[in-house]
Amino acid sequence: MDNIIKMKGVEKIYGTNIKTQVLYDINLSFEAGSFNSIIGQSGSGKSTLLNIMGTLDNPTNGEVYINGKNTTEMTKNQLANLRNDMLGFIFQFHYLLPEFKVIENILMPHYIKGGQLTSDVEKRAEYLIDMLGLTKVKNNLATQLSGGQQQRTAIARALMNNPKVILADEPTGNLDSDTSEDVYNLLRDINKQFNTTFVIITHDQRIAEKADRIIEINDGRINMDFKR
Ligand SMILES: Nc1ncnc2c1ncn2[C@@H]1O[C@H](COP(=O)(O)OP(=O)(O)OP(=O)(O)O)[C@@H](O)[C@H]1O
Ligand SMILES: [Mg+2]
Fold first, then answer.
1. What mean pLDDT comes out for the span 39-45?
2. Contacts within 8 Å (CB) and 24+ apart, 127-132
């Protein structure tokens, strides 16, 4: 299996005068189509790691390869294009655009890519809306949604460009346990249906346990790497 993400010797040090090292010599690869979870205590470096593998943040040392390409030497524009083509992000706080409708929020990655609103694109958005149970609220503004609906809109948005990789930071962090289970099942379906690679940070034991691989971070180091 090809590695879709590969990190070599990644370190992160915050601060200039007072330096805090948050990640130490991380060597980690993810196979295309795999479903992975990252666990670890608060402050252990999980979000920092995810942001670095998603090229949202730079490592202090080391390299990040996405689809075999070294991202370290890329320009800001090249990185933005790579992210928009390859990666989907789901954050705990989903940053929907409040003045836009659900369907417009979902279409946003397509517009950012410079795409036209063709009937195929509309069909895909409708399909995601249906799959995520958002039909009734698709014309609501993002501010007129429940927490779970906002979360599901953010997930549909992350899927709109059919990214190869989804990076999720506590995607079910503010959902009740039944809704969490639904969201998890949905992510699994997408993983199977489209061979999308998932890396999911979670405190939810049940989600972590159902992944193909569990990686535990402890004080900026990989403490455990368990593959089923
Ligand atoms: N911009 C920053 N400047 C300085 N220190 C930072 C910065 N961002 C994060 N840190 C520190 O890096 C460490 C790791 O933070 P990170 O957000 O990666 O943890 P986490 O494992 O995601 O925690 P949580 O489970 O609470 O989300 C923490 O000690 C945090 O205080
Ligand atoms: Mg975090």
1. 95
2. 128/156, 128/159, 128/160, 129/102, 129/103, 129/156, 131/156, 131/186, 132/156, 132/186
Q: Give yes or no for a contact between 40 and 216, defined as CB atoms under 8 angstroms apart.
A: yes
* Amino acid of residue 200: I
Closest Cα to atom 2, ligand 1: which residue? Answer: 14
Q: Whose CA is nearest to atom 9 of ligand 1?
A: 48
Percent helix, strand, coil in the chain, to 5, is: 40, 30, 35
Rounded distance between C-alpha atoms, residue 121 and residue 115, angstroms = 9
Distance 117 CA to ligand 2 centre (A): 35
Q: Domains of the chain, with CATH numbers?
A: 3-227 (3.40.50.300)
CA of 119 to the centre of ligand 2 (A): 38
Q: pLDDT (tens digit, 9 = 90+) per residue, 76-99? A: 999 999 998 899 999 877 789 999
Tens of pLDDT, residues 179-202? 788 888 888 988 998 899 999 999
Q: How far is the CA of 179 from the centre of ligand 1 (A)?
A: 27
Residue whose Cα lies nearest atom 8 of ligand 1: it is 48
Enter the pTM of the model.
0.91
